[in-house]
Design goal:
Elements (H helix, E strand, L loop, with lengths): L3 E4 L5 H15 L6 H10 L5 H6 L2 E6 L2 E9 L25 E8 L8 H15 L4 E7 L3 H6 L3 E10 L2 E11 L2
Parallel strand pairs: 4-5
Antiparallel strand pairs: 1-2, 2-3, 3-4, 5-7, 6-7
Helix pairs in contact: 1-2
């Protein structure tokens, strides 16, 4: 399955959102209940257009079909799409702050085929090239094994509430060499 990793475009916002929802609904079943998945889709998971505007959000494009997405950020917000109201768009200082790894999702038909790893490598390379020495992310429960395999360490479990539904996550971190 050939694909390329490229910057996401604003005109792809709806297609990216559909990819995110399909990924969440199909690849999270072993770790989250239906109520948790739907709460996350409504209130947490989604496109953060600031990442697209910054040129730090990427898609895996297989002959015109988006099969994966993810990005990095030089802004303070750790997670959440445009629907999350408490996002902090202030810029980080690469000498003291960790860049944020954001919004990684893979279409269920292409899971566990290296797509997320390829996007993550692009993000790590770009964050490093921009002077960052560390990365931080908010992992879903299904994402923990993947990020551990990529050298991230679990820092702190945390819960996020959407409409009285608690969705667990784990903050993870990696030092760049």
């Amino acid at each position: 399955m050939p694909y390329i990793i490229r910057q996401a475009r604003l005109d792809e916002r709806d297609e990216i959102q559909q990819l995110i929802v399909a990924s969440a609904r199909h690849l999270s079943r072993a770790e989250y209940s239906d109520a948790q998945i739907e709460a996350a889709v409504r209130g947490i998971f989604g496109v953060d257009t600031s990442l697209i505007d910054d040129g730090t959000y990427f898609v895996a494009d297989s002959e015109g079909k988006l099969i994966g997405c993810g990005g990095w950020s030089r802004r303070r917000t750790l997670f959440g799409g445009d629907q999350v109201t408490h996002r902090d768009l202030a810029e980080l200082n690469p000498l003291r702050d960790a860049a944020k790894i954001r919004a990684f999702f893979v279409h269920p038909n292409f899971a566990r085929q290296g797509v997320a790893r390829a996007i993550l490598q692009r993000c790590e390379d770009e964050a490093r090239a921009n002077g960052f020495r560390a990365l931080e992310l908010m992992s879903t429960m299904p994402g923990i094994k993947f990020y551990l395999s990529c050298g991230y360490e679990e820092i702190e479990p945390t819960d996020y509430n959407v409409d009285d539904v608690t969705v667990p996550f784990v903050v993870m971190r990696k030092k760049l060499t």
